[in-house]
């Protein structure tokens, strides 16, 4: 089944034992209870084509499935549901498990080196003797996770908010009070130029906060509320905005190399003015988004003028009504992307 297209397929309980699924496209497939033990899910290149196909199981349902001893080198399982899945002895080197739910999964002896687990759920997972060295654990809650016997050398961990300087903690507390009191108490967070690299802001409400020019490389904002937030000129390389609400935010001239925006909300924000109801666009004008992951993101009406999206992943993203003047989309993945048409209507690519 080399490079087979099974996007959205219902294959619950199916037997794929030792199948050749190199480069298979299985985004959103239902594979609950399926047997995928010893399958080959490495990248594949179609004959006569230079395009390298990464096996894509993102957002798939793999609860109670078997992936024992599977070869999943450089496979994407981002956002997949892997509850109680058996993944013993599997090779998951350099693969993406960002945002995946691995609750109760059995990864005993699995090789997960240099993998991306940003925002993943590992509650009650069996990680005995698994190799995670060099992997990304940013935004991952490791509470109640037994890592005894697991190799996590050189792994990247988030900086908890309570580990940040006390003055930064005070700014964030005051902002929370300001938001909860609708501006009558506390104070809006203003952290221009602050060094907040690898900080974990997952799930926080930071609407209207200012991070202009801040160093937020590797920071996690997954599931955060960031409406009208200001990231102008900020360093956000490898930052994680998975499923964050960025409507009306400003990321003008930001450095967003390899950043993650999977399923992020970045459409126009509702705005109340003296004249009545209006909307305010999210702007990424002049931003460097090379290699960024914007798959399944809502980018309707976004301003991307002069932005660099070279090599970015825009699969299934919606850019209806977006402004793309001088935008570099070379080598970008635009499979099933809704792009703005010249006449202003949306056009699926």
Provide a count of the helices.
1
Structural class: little secondary structure
Number of domains: 2
What oligomeric state is this?
single chain
Assign an overall shape. globular
Radius of gyration in whole Å, from Cα? 21 Å
Mean pLDDT: 93
CATH class of the largest domain: Mainly Beta
Q: SSE string, helix = H, strand = E?
A: EEHEEEE
Distance between the termini: 25 Å
- Unreliable runs: none
CATH topology of the largest domain: Pectate Lyase C-like
Report the helical percentage.
under 10%
CATH architecture of the largest domain: 3 Solenoid
Report the count of strand segments: 6
Report the sheet-strand fraction.
Answer: 5-15%
Widest beta sheet: strand line-up: 1-2
Describe the sheet with the most strands: 2 strands, antiparallel
CATH superfamily of the largest domain: E3 ubiquitin-protein ligase SopA
Describe the structure.
The protein is mostly loops and 349 residues long. The model has no long low-confidence stretch (mean pLDDT 93). The relative contact order is 0.07. It is 4% helix and 6% strand. Strands 1-2 form a two-stranded antiparallel ribbon. A hairpin with a 2-residue loop joins β3 (269-273) and β4. It is built from one helix and six strands; from the N terminus they run ββαββββ. It is globular and about 65 Å long.
């Amino acid at each position: 089944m080399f490079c087979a297209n099974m996007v959205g397929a219902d294959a619950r309980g199916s037997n794929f034992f030792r199948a050749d699924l190199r480069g298979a496209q299985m985004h959103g497939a239902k594979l609950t209870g399926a047997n995928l033990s010893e399958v080959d899910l490495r990248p594949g290149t179609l004959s006569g084509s230079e395009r390298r196909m990464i096996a894509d199981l993102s957002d798939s349902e793999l609860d109670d499935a078997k992936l024992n001893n599977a070869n999943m080198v450089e496979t994407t399982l981002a956002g997949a549901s892997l509850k109680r899945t058996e993944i013993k002895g599997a090779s998951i080197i350099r693969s993406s498990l960002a945002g995946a739910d691995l609750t109760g999964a059995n990864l005993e002896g699995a090789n997960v080196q240099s993998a991306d687990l940003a925002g993943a759920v590992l509650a009650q997972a069996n990680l005995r003797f698994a190799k995670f060295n060099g992997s990304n654990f940013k935004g991952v809650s490791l509470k109640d996770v037994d890592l005894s016997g697991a190799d996590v050398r050189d792994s990247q961990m988030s900086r908890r908010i309570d580990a940040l300087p006390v003055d930064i903690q005070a700014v964030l507390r005051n902002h929370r009070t300001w938001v909860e009191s609708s501006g009558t108490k506390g104070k809006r967070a203003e952290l221009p130029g602050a060094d907040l690299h690898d900080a974990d802001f997952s799930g926080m409400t930071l609407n209207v906060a200012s991070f202009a020019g801040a160093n937020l490389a590797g920071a996690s904002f997954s599931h955060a509320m960031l409406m009208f937030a200001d990231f102008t000129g900020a360093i956000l390389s490898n930052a994680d905005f998975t499923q964050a609400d960025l409507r009306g935010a400003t990321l003008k001239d930001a450095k967003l190399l390899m950043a993650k925006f999977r399923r992020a909300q970045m459409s126009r924000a509702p705005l109340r003015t003296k004249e009545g109801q209006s909307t305010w666009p999210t702007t990424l004008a002049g931003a460097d988004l090379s290699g960024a992951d914007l798959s399944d993101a809502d980018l309707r009406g976004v301003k991307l003028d002069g932005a660099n999206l070279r090599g970015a992943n825009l699969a299934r993203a919606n850019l209806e009504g977006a402004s793309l003047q001088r935008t570099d989309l070379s080598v970008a993945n635009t499979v099933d992307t809704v792009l703005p048409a010249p006449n202003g209507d949306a056009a699926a690519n």
